[in-house]
Amino acid sequence: MGHGRLYLVTDLVGFYEKCGWEYVGEANEIDGGPIRLYGANALLHHKQGK
After folding, report:
1. By CB atoms within 10 Å of each CB, which of 8, 27, 29, 36 scores lowest?
2. Of the candidates 9, 11, 15, 21, the residue with the CA atom closest to the CA atom of residue 50
3. By CB neighbour count within 10 A (0-12 exposed, 13-18 middle, 19+ buried), where does 47 fall?
4. Beta strands 5-10; 22-28: pairing state
5. 41: which residues sit within 8 A by CB, 6+ positions away?
């Protein structure tokens, strides 16, 4: 079984850190504006039922 990494982008600050996601940095939205990029181990979230 692979140990992939999940990524998400959001404008929420503080929520995903509490859920075990790591802040990776800023990304650009389609319109060019900044948005927060988070990453998490896929295996970790599979075990937690997410």
Report:
1. 29
2. 21
3. exposed
4. unpaired
5. 3, 5, 6
The pLDDT value recorded for residue 32 is 93
Using one digit for the tens of pLDDT, what is the confidence trace for 1-50?
556 899 999 999 999 999 999 999 999 999 999 999 999 988 754 455 55
Whether this model's pTM surpasses 0.90: no
User: What secondary structure, in 3-state letters, does the chain show?
Assistant: CCCCEEEEEECCCCHHHHCCCEEEEEEECCCCCEEEEEEEEHHHHHHCCC
- As given in the structure block, the two tokens for residue 19 are 């859920």
Amino acid occupying residue 44:
L
